[in-house]
Specification:
The protein is mostly helical. The chain is 85% helix and 0% strand. The longest helix is centred in the N-terminal third of the chain and has 36 residues.
Length: 87
Amino acid sequence: MPITKSAKRVIRSSERKMVYNDRRKKAMKEAVKETKTLLVTKNKKAAQEMLSTAYKAIDKALKTKLIKKNTAARKKSRLAKFINKAA
C-alpha cells in the first residue's frame, strides 16, 4: 500500500489512464477484427470502408503511445496486404 500522499495520487492517476488505454486498445482490436471479418465474408467494398476506420484507431493508439511506431506500421501494412490479397 502507498504511504505518502504523492504515491496515492500516482495510483489514482494510473487507474484513470488504464481505463482510457484499455478503451483505446479495445477499439483498435475491434476495428481490425471487423475489417478482417468483412473480408472473410467476401464483402470487399465494406472492408475498404472499414479499413480507414481501422487505420484511424491504430493511429490514435500510436499517438497516445499505446503502441510503438513500427507496431502501428506493421498492423496497417498487414491489413492492407490482407485486403489486396483478397482481390
